[in-house]
Amino acid sequence: MRNLFKNIGYKLYLKQQTGSKRISFSYIPNQDGSVRWFWNSRSKKPLFLKFYNITTIKGKLFAFVVHLIFFLNLQKVVFKKETLYYTSEENPLFDIMNDWAIFTGTPGPNNKAVLFADKCFFKIAATKNAKNLINKEYKIITYSGTNRLYSTPSASLINDCVLRLSDISNNGKRQKKFSGIHAKALQGIKEKYQTAIKISNWKHFGTLIENFTTIDDNRIPPNLMRKLKMILENIDKDEMIHLSFSHGDFTPWNCCVKDDILGIYDWELASFEKPKGFDFFHFIIQNSILVQHMPWKETWTQIRKHNKTAFNFNDNELKKYLKFYLLTNVLYYLKLYSEQEQWHLQIHWLLKVWSEALNMYLTEIKTERELLIMDIFDYLYPQKYAAMKFHDKEPENLPLNSDIDLVISFQDASKMAVFLKQNSLVNRIKIVKKSFMYNIRLITHDLKILNLDLIYQLKWKHLEFMETHRMIDHAEQNRYGIKISSPQDTAKYLYYFYTLNNSKIPDSYKSFVYENASETIMKSKTECITMLKNKECNRGFLFLKNLGGYLKDIFSERGFIITFSGVDGVGKSTVISEVSELIEKRYRRPVKVLRHRPSLLPILSVFTKGKEKAHQDIVNSLPRQGKNDHFFSSLLRFTYYYADYIIGQFIIYLKYVLRGKIVLYDRYYFDFIADSKRSNIKLPEGITENGYHLLLKPKFNFFLYAAPEKILGRKKELSYHSICALTASYGRLFSKLEKKDPKIKYLSIENNDLDTTLGTIMNTIIAAK
C-alpha cells in the first residue's frame, strides 16, 4: 500500500511523524482477509461501487444496502477501519481528504490498483508487467479511438506507473446479457484490423504453445494439461485461421451502455493476433462462469443462441473459432496462474469449465466415458478423498465393467453429485442416497455407463468397521494426481468386506491383503462382529442411528422386471446368461433369474408324479407334446397357473423388486397367449390375452426371433411350420401390446449376432428413463 500511495503523491506511516496528518481508511476485505476496496472514512459517497459489477440480483441488492448504509451515515459503524498518517508531495494526483476509493486489484504478475477520484479512474501499476500493460493500454486507446459503433475513454499517461482515464460509465448501465448493442460494437472492433494466415505462421499462438511447455505447477489439474496437449498435437498447422483486432477482455464489467452506444474500457489486453470471434466468446464464457455460475452445457447453449446476433458462424466455423478462443485464452491464463503465488476461488471455477469445454474437441480421441472420468478426477484434484482399488494407469483407462469407489466426506460427496448432474457429458444420472454413501449411475450420450460409490461411512449392514477420515488422511497421490487409499487401509477394507459378507478373498487380492493387513484384524466373521459391536461408534444412540439407516437402505432403490420370449432354439438361455452378467457387472444391480412364472405354486404334475419325477419328465420331454384339447380341463390348468401369476407377482415384487433386484424371466405369461399349447392348454387367445390386463407389467419385454433354418440348426424340437407360426404369433402380440402402452418396452429382436443382440438389449435398458 505504501508503494501504491507513493506513485500518486503521498507517503503513509503507521505512527505519527513530523509534519504528518492523521487519516482513517474504511475498507472491505476479500475472503482471505486482504483488502479489496478502501476509501476515506469521511467520504459521504460509496465511490467503491464504481468497481463493482451491479448486474445481478445479488449485485443490485448489495449496492442498495451500501447506499442505505451511507444514507443513514452508518458507514463508520458497519465497515472496518484503520487509522494511518500521511504526508503529501508537491503535486499529488488527488486530495486524500476528499471523496475517493481504491480497488487493490487482482493478485498476480499483472496486478494494478485502480483509484477513482475527481470523476476519473487512475490505473496504478504495482509490477513490471503491469507497467507494460498500462503503457500498452494508452497506445491501444489512442489507436482504437472513438468509433461510430462504440466509445472509449480519453486517456493520458501521468507517468510510467499511472494512467488516467475518463469515466465513460457515468450515467451508463452495465448489461450482463449479450445484446445487439454488444454485437454492433464487436463489428466495429473487428473492422479495425483483419487478416488470414496459416496456423504455422501465427506467432502469437506459437509463443503461447512455447510458454505452455514451460509450465510446472502441480496446482493445475493434470487431466486439463493432458487434454490441451492432445488437442495441440492434432492441430493441422497448414490450416488457415482468420485473425482480427480484439479488446481481449470484453466482459459485462468492462462495458456500459449509454445512448445506445457501448462504452468499452480496460483495453490493456487488446491484440491484433486473436482469432476471429475472441471477444464474443470471452463475453459469454466469462460472464457465465464468474457472474452467473452456469455449467458448460448452459454456456454452450448461450453461445449458439447469441452467435446468430454476433457473427452468424455456421456450425463448423463456430466450433473452430471457439476451439482457438479456448486454446489462446486457456494457454495464456495457465501460464499467468502458474506464476501467481496465491490462487483465488474464481481460478478453480474457470479451470473446471475450461476443461469441460475442451471435451468437444476430443471425442475422436477419447470416448465420452473416458472424458467424464478425466473430468471427475480433475474436479477432485484440489479436494481430500481416497480412491479404493483403483488401477495405476491413466484414470480414463478404467475397464468398462469397473466402477469408481471413493471415500469422501459427506459435504464433498453432495457437492460432487451436483457437479455430475451439470456435466455436459452426462445424458442421464441416477443418484441413490443411502445412509453411508451416494450410489451414482452415470449414462453418457453414447450410452456408456459409469458407476460411482461416494462413501462417507464405511459400514457393513449397521456396523461401522473403519473411519473414513483416517482413510482420507492416509491417502497417497499417484503419478496421475489421483489420491489412492494406502495399502494398509485398502487391505483392511478388503479383509472386512469379504469376511463380513461370508465370501472368500479373491485370488487377485489375497496376497496383497495378507501382506498389508494387520494381524489384529485377522479374525473370523463372528469375532469381527463381536469386536465391531464393542466400538463406541456402534453403541448407544449411534447403534440405533446406524440400524435405522441400514433398514432404510434395504429399500433405497427399486428394481424392475425383464422378460425374454421366443421359440425353443432361438438362443434365449445364452442371451439371458450374458445379460445377467452385464447387469451385475456394468449396470451394478443384483439379478434374479426366474423360469416362466413366479412358481409360488408347483407344476400340476407334481400332485400325481411327485416333485422329483415331475421335474425330471419336464427336462426329458419335448415342448408342445401335450395331448389336452378339452376346453374345461384347459381352463382349469390355465386358472391354476394364472393364480400363480396373480399371487406370485406380489411376492416377487416384495422379495426382489422392492429390494432393488433385477428379475429376468426366461419365458413369461406371453407364452399363454402366443403359445398356450406349450403349457398343454387349448383356449381361445382372447381369454389368455385379457388375463394379462390384471398383471403388473414388466418394464422390459424382449421377443427374440431368428430364421427357421438357423433355429433348426441349433435344435430340432419344432417343425419349420411351427417356428414360422409361433414367430408370427409372438410378433403380432408384441406389436399390439406396444401400441396399447408405449411406456412399457415390447421389443422384437432378430437374434443373429449375439453382440448385436446384447447391445440392443442393454442400450434399451440404459436409455429408458
Give a short summary of the structure.
The chain has 27 helices and 29 strands.
Describe the structure.
The mean pLDDT is 90. The protein starts with a helix and ends with a helix. The chain has four domains: 2-166, no CATH class; 180-361, Aminoglycoside 3'-phosphotransferase, Chain: A, domain 2 (Alpha-Beta Complex); 368-554, no CATH class; 560-767, Rossmann fold (3-Layer(aba) Sandwich). Helix 6 (203-212) packs across helix 10, helix 8 (278-290) packs antiparallel against helix 9 and helix 19 packs across helix 27. It is an alpha+beta fold. 43% of the residues lie in helices and 20% in strands. The strands form seven sheets. The protein has a nine-stranded antiparallel β-sheet. It has a five-stranded mixed β-sheet with strand order 16-17-20-19-18, with helices on both faces. A five-stranded parallel β-sheet has the order 26-27-25-28-29, with helices on both faces.
